[in-house]
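Comment thread on ticket #2218

A.B. wrote:
> Attaching the input chain for the structure job we discussed in standup.
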Amino acid sequence: MLCEEKVLRKDERAAWAFLKRTLLFLSPFFLFFLVFELALWRAGDALPSRHAFQRQIASKDEVLYGRDFLSQQFNIYKLTAIRELRPEILVLGSSRVMQIRSLLFGPFSFYNAGGMLQNACDLQEYARLVLKKDLPSPRVLIVGIDPWWLNEGYGSDTSWLNQEDEAYSFVAHVEALRRAIREKRLGALLRGLFLPKKSPYWGYEAIGSLAIHKDNGFRRDGSRQYSPEILLDYMKDPKFVDREDPPVIERIRSHWGKFALPQRFDHSRAGAIIQSLEQLRDLGTEIWIFLPPFSTESGQALDTIPAYSMWWSTYKHGFAHAFRSRGFHVVAAFSPRDYGLDDRYMIDGFHPSEVFMAHVVARIVEIAPETSPLSKLDINFLRGIAESAATPLSFDVPERIRDKLRPRIAKPAERLHSEPHSPDTAFPISEQMNLEKRRKP
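C.D. wrote:
> Ran it. Output below, let me know if you need it in another format.
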């Protein structure tokens, strides 16, 4: 028995010695991962979406939020904002509605939840949460509906609104490390431990690597700020560029992604969308249906390619008519030309710019019934913002580059029925926001 105890103690000592050597061997890796995690946290990529939103609303100034190494998870971030802000006017949809901004709605509380909905199931889940009173019901709801939501083969039958934040996932953090190494961005991330967290062009407080390095992310009102680098490119060569990769027109012609064949109109999904919006309307919410635009070439391709024409035509005409026949307000913007604009007002083949969306909001106000809260907005103010924009892509350009590049700032695309405005007459966002007092009472 004594011999057995001695052997056992010897084995225990050997096991502890092995464990110590293993920990000593692994300690550099643990230390490296710890430093990486500190860098992620410092940048804001590891900050949970809910906490990022809380930091935004706690600040007096604009705070830009754009994670890079972890998923941005619009669902969690924007659901948090809706619950906290309880906006009177709410925008829902995919990334194609993200350019609608709060400065267009003056006296009303506003939030842009663009990106929160990816398919018809997400809209159904949103309606369910409102009906359960898990989400507040807005006075006005502007909903962007994409045509691929109504394709039999697109999307899933589950909603992503109930996902957990990747900030709490160990696997997601490991994948972030692998990505940083693979893309050779680890050094820049680690250097961020010692650099100020300011966006490079606008100088906003920035949360997340995308906001810090590219000035790309969500503003406090939920709208998306694209990197000002696209403004620099436009100033050098003022023409339309499809910045999607691959370009939207190539996706259409090659039947790729959202445009994969077969394209068959799903009437059951259309019915589910209509039913969800009718339920929300029954709660007293005024609902506007927005059908977002494509660039001219992309729209023409959808019109003429036989594999798409029936599905696309049903969306443009039959689906829109189904809403109108049920008393919904429908605002279609299938092409920039519908608003007297050209493709320079498109960020890419299917994302309109904030200036384009200002024209759309002006159209909504123009046709809004007197009983609508939107009828209280000053349409001349909205038109002034849109027509005096510094470029077709943005109301203003960063002060840091404005003086140096002013001679190269192109005029907004010529309106079909009016004279173009010179950028010299454009007034910056700060002045536009001060002018909100001009709105009707």
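A.B. wrote:
> Thanks. Noting for the ticket: The CA atoms of residues 63 and 205 lie 5 Å apart.
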